[in-house]
Structure formats: structure tokens, C-alpha cells
Amino acid sequence: MPVQSTSRILSYWASRQVDRVAIDHEGEAVTWGEFEARTNRLARAYAELGVQQDDFVTIALPNGIEFFAACFAVWKLGATPQPISAKLPKSERDQIIELGTPSLIVGVESGVYEQTASVPQGFEPGAHLSSDALPELTAASLKAMTSGGSTGRPKLIVSAQPAAWDTDLPYLEIPQQGAMLVPGPLYHNGPFVWAMIALFRGCTVAITTRFDAEQTLAILERLKINIVYMVPTMMRRIWALPEDVRTGYDLSNLQTLWHLAAPCPAWLKECFIDWLGAEVIWELYAGTEGQGTTMIRGDEWLTHKGSVGRPVEACEIRIVGETGETLPSGEVGEVFLRPLTGQGSTYRYIGAEAKSIEGGWESLGDLGWMDEDGYLYLTDRLSDMILSGGANIYPAEVEAAIDAYPGVRSSAVIGLPDDDMGARLHAIIDRPEGPVEDSSMATHLADHLVRYKIPKSFEYVSEPVRDDAGKVRRKALRADRLESGIA
Fold this sequence. Notes:
Oligomer: single chain
CATH class of the largest domain: Alpha Beta
Helix content: 25-40%
Number of strands: 28
Shape: globular
Distance between the termini: 60 Å
CATH topology of the largest domain: Rossmann fold
CATH architecture of the largest domain: 3-Layer(aba) Sandwich
CATH superfamily of the largest domain: ANL, N-terminal domain
Number of helices: 13
Low-confidence stretches: none
Structural class: alpha/beta
Number of domains: 3
């Protein structure tokens, strides 16, 4: 099988499909041949700025062809891309740069960091630089992603996998030389991994600046997309389109729809299964750390509704109680994972320590349970738990009930200070049609939740409370409400 260094993958595919589109960004396209030449020149420019083998290069660029060019230029120097949001507050970006000590920052004006070279968005290499192939170099780490900014100091999650890939390896249902759409933010691990592996497999990869429901359907039709990456927020927005709009596009080439990164309401998943077919809908659960993974296809999910699947062959999962005991099937506890290759074999942290227990088991902070067939069911994030009146309340359950109300696009439940209960539940609801009477929402929730889990206050907003990666920053939402006096 042809394992290729990521410094060689573009030339490998350019020699086989030189004029085929490699990347399409909302109609702006670059062919494999063009992209190979462009990234060779860019790599030489980065080398002139001091990038060397196994350095980190921080990439603060928005979705676009330039983002991919920066990553492949870094790989061509045997270095590791370390993507961050282009909109990250400077204070948080500063912390990440302090942790990673990159040799170059891409997407930041020159001079912002006195000790580190930087180039702005739109940087072009000098005309004197060659577009010929560079010597083959392979970074020790494929990627270095960031995490933790919503709960504390950021950390880097550095992959233990070298920057190389088997271009013939069947992976994530991505067809070799197919067409993939990734409408999520590329600085998040999921969109980054799916997009890059699709390129490693010789696919045309389509990306968008931001997620738009109808635009997504139009791209699926225009580029005859075979596989698409989504999060439940995206699926909900597509389902909210008028039926004649949603069904007016030709999706006959779509073979696989992946959804991950956040809980998917059962009703929404069933709607997509009915619409596109059970064999098209796939779900995956894993962390950026890669200690373990579960997968499940739609037809399998129909017999284990609510599950995120069984562990893949390369890992083990166990459910652990508060005193460290392994819980029997059906009981909720903390989810611990372990790769068969051993603890620490898939990643390393910079700026954090893994939460682990004896035996090399590690937790990502999720709660869940397993059934007798070994299928995993997630219930919530341990860090999101709200203690109210002595009861543990997990926001995901409440949010799923709120999201089932007609017209709700997304929601977030947070705990605000309460002298009597310790914390009271406050719901932030994105409903484009506008607010509803509190009594109407409370009546709806009473059909889904016990009384103490029903929020005491409701707030309606016009912007999604989850980002395009399906993430919600509860700490920031809570701080904003405390500052504005809502509490």
C-alpha cells in the first residue's frame, strides 16, 4: 500500500489528476497541479522565515484555499500545522502561542509578536521562489490542535501519528478520488481531519466560509458530492428549510453523511434516515486525543436508538462510577477509553494532564452508559453539570427537550446564581420566529422532563448559540448574563 509522506501527497495526486479540482471554496477552485506548485513556493517562503523540521506553525486563517495551502506548505517542510480560529481573542491566542512556541504564525500581521515571525492573511511568496518539488520531509506529528479555551487555559493536543498517510487505506467511508463537502470551521479537529484525509485520498474537497443550509444543498448538487461532514446544528438548520426547498436539490450522488461533535436528537436523526436512507447516515464519537472511537450506521442505530455505536477494534471503553468501580450495563457513569496500543500512544498534551485512572484508562469528561450488546449511549458532559437544590442536572437532556419545540433552531441551558437553590436553570433559545409564552414552553417541557429540570427563565436570541462545529461555550454565555445583570 502506498504510504505517502504528507510532503509528497500533493505531487502523488497531481501526477494522476493534474487538471482535476482539488479544493473548491464557494466556486473558487484550484487544481491539483496548481495547488502542488503553489504550496512548493509557499513552503520555500516559510523556510526563509525560519520554519524547520518538526517545528509548530500556528495557522490563524479562516476557511479558504489559503488555509489548506498553509498546512501543506508546513508539511512540505517536515513541520506540524497548529490551526486556531482566525477570530480568537488575542489573549487566548497569546496563551496558545506561549504553549506551542511556533517558529511562524500565519494570519497575523508582521511585528505583532516580537519574538516570532508572522505573515498576514493573503501573504504571497516572492516571485524568485521555485515551484519545483522539495526534498521529502516527514513531521513527527501530523497535527497539533487546540482545546480547552471554553473551560480554562487552552491546551495543545499533539498527534502521535507522523505526517504520513496510506492513500489506498479505506477510512471513514471516504471514497478514493471522490468528492467531499466540509462546511464546518477547519480549525476544529473534526472538519480538519475529514477534509485533510479526503485530500489524502485524492478527493475534490469543497468548503464554505460559514454554514448555510440551502447553500450546502446547492453544493451537494453542483459538485456531485459523495460524502459530507456535519454536526447536528447543521442538520437541524437544513430540516428547518421549507420542504420544497430541501427536496428540490439532486442529492443522488450522496453516499455518506457523517454527524458528530454534539448530541443528535433522535427525532432529527430519524428524519434524516427517512429522507436520505439509513445506510447513508453515520455517527462517530471520539476525542481529538484519539484514545478511542465508536461508530454506528443508521440501520444499526435503528436497532439501538440513541447509541453512538460500539468501540472500534483499536480501543476499549468502560463506564466508571464515582468510587472508581466499573459499572454494569445500563448504569450511567463516566466514560473512560483506552487504545489497545497503550496510554499515550495516540497523542500528548502541552499545557494539561490527562484525566486517567489505573490501567491507562483516560476520560474526556463525558457521561454515559453501555447496553448489554456493548453499545455506548452518551448523556452529557461532566463539566456541564448544574447542581440545583441538591440535584444533578445535565443540560443536554434539557436542551434536547427545548429543541423539540416547533421553530427552535438551537438552545443552551446554563446555571445562574440562586440564593435558595444554589443555581437556577436559565435557557437561551435561538428561535428565528421569535419568543413564545413561557407557559407554552413550560407545558411542552413538562411532557419531556421532570419538574425540577424545567428552566425557571427563558431568553430568546436571534443568533445560533452553537457554532458551526456544534460547540457551545457555556462559560462565556454565563459570564455575559452575569455581566449584563440577567442573573
